[in-house]
Amino acid sequence: MEADLSVLIIAILQAAVRSGTPILFVCIGEIYAERAGVLNVGLEGLMLIGAISGFTVSFTTGSAPLGVAAAAIAGGLFALIHAFTTITLRADQIVSGLTLTILGTGISGFFGKAMIGQVGPGFDRLELPVLAQIPVLGEIFFRQDAMVYLSFLLVPLTWWVMFRTHLGLAIRSVGESPATADSLGVSVTRVRYGCVVFGGAMAGVGGAYLSLAYTTMWVEQMSGGRGWITLALVIFAGWNPAKAFLGAYLFGGAEALQLRLQAVGLGIPTYFLMMLPYVLTIAILVMASRASLRRRLGAPAALGVPYAREER
Amino acid sequence: MPLRLEMRLERSRRLEYLVPVLSVLLALAVSGLLLLMTGTNPLTAYGEMFSEAFGTSYGFAEVLVKATPLILCGLGVMLAFKMLFWNIGAEGQLHMGAWGATAVVMTGWDGSPWLMVPAMVVAGMICGAIWALIPAFLKVQLNCNEIITTLLLNYVAILWVAHFIYGPWKDPESFGFPMTKQFPDGAQLLRFGDSRVHLGLVFALLAAVVLYFLQEKSRWGFEIAVTGNNPTAAEYAGMNSRRNILLVMAISGGLAGLAGMSEIAGIQLKLLKDISPHAAPYGYTAIIIAWLARRNPWGVVLVSVLMGGLYVGGETVQITMKLPVNFVLIIQALILFFVLGGDILSRYKLVYRREAPIGG
What we know:
The structure holds 2 protein chains of 2 kinds.
Chain A: H1 2-35, H2 43-61, H3 64-88, H4 93-112, E1 125-127, H5 137-141, E2 143-145, H6 146-164, H7 166-176, H8 178-183, H9 188-214, H10 226-236, H11 241-264, H12 270-274, H13 276-294
Antiparallel strand pairs in A: 1-2
Helix pairs in contact in A: 1-6, 1-9, 1-10, 1-11, 2-3, 2-4, 2-9, 2-10, 3-4, 3-9, 6-7, 6-11, 10-11, 10-13, 11-13
Chain B: E1 3-7, H1 13-37, H2 42-54, H3 57-82, H4 90-106, H5 113-142, H6 146-166, H7 199-217, H8 219-229, H9 231-236, H10 241-268, H11 282-292, H12 297-320, H13 327-347, E2 348-352
Antiparallel strand pairs in B: 1-2
């Protein structure tokens, strides 16, 4: 019985990593954008764009990695619209992001109609030699698919870029005090464009994870609120990739747990279990907001504020 | 980046009026390109959409049917926008309103519409208001980001409704479909003539009148406007913006709740899945409407009717030309993007010039 329980827990944690991976990709991307001072609430739409373009390309070419590349490009291109309206035209970032969500939902549904019901190629489980043999940890982290390993690499890389390189310094200074960055010769516009487009590409990849690894099909509106959950996660993580790593699996855990509980059937109605990830997100946002009331939690000072040199 | 904005000396009046018109035309042009890509003649499609929605009395009645929940949700979202409170949760508030109204029917009460309808209106509005007060309370107490909370509560509300129609409230004679029994006559809203236009439209227009007077003629409306424009000034003037946020969201959620109530009591006549169209939910379209209407209740009514036309036209070409319904969403989003960009261009000029070094 005890052995059964530990098997069950390991299975849930393994599923938590899988469920957390799409959120982790999107979160890393959004950390770049928000660190540079641009809020993108269009993540939900970008994920859908990534999911459908990734699926379409991998379905037609038979190559899942090509699908991921396509998702990144498509996500980046659509984020470029947000970059143009908010950085060049200085439009309201929230309205532009919401519009992007609506556009992404529409476009993905429009082009996805032909793909409904198809099963495409995806990423298979890939056990890493040696690492997969580590007891417990190996089972949870190293018996996953290639995209999960990619996300593992992305976290330390982002941390290093953000806190140990000139580029990271430029990004953070543009988000904290664009006027200062500008006077030091950093192009605010270029840094912000780069971060928003990269963020969009990552959101696309996160979406592609849903249609190429988490499942291997396209379902309309399959992102199911993960883009919004990510926005809460960025705040929870304090714009820090290392904390995002843990946070993403916490959210993944909620999803994995509710699916498992549904299967077991504890007498809790299914639809109440399905609320768990959303309710948990709100609860965590509440806690993060309380904490930030006590001490400021590193929100970039210029987040959401367009920069105009002549208005300094 | 060689593209830069330069402030216009005078706000371009001509552009201000041209922007919405041009935005619609540009949105139709761009989505026309999408249609061409899928081998459809956009002119035929648009012609059919327009003549179905605005060319026949049946079609126009259906436009008003769609406009009813859009006006109610749009007014609510607009009022919250005025205070810079982003209520992205009209969809959830609409679902909770529908649930509250159904709860009245599910007590087994089968009485006169003179009693049942008001009870359902009150129940629906209260449930919508409560759902909107949760994020409002979290905002004023903890400064919790309302965009995220209002949106996530949509998912919770939809699951809440699903629980009841798949479970305790499911009609045993529905052949497994997730829906309640049909409402008794007393719980149905009056319809006008042979059309499906129902009393909900009257509620919606009344709400527009009331909001107009609240906004434009009352001291409270003034407080809301000041708080939205300059929160610090409002605090100094002794306005209680916390209380105002709670009040505004109670009204906003109440209106969306009323939209849910009138949709099920006027159109569906039972509680079921997809009270609001899955492809372009009313609660989300309401955000676009509130933005396009420029904070004006009459603007909300007008834009809602146009959006209603887009729904009806979209449904028509979905059937006759096999176009995916999501097409409606694309047009909506493109209009909004063009208006967003166009608004800026009526205040600034976009000039092509290389960025000069500071001091140079």
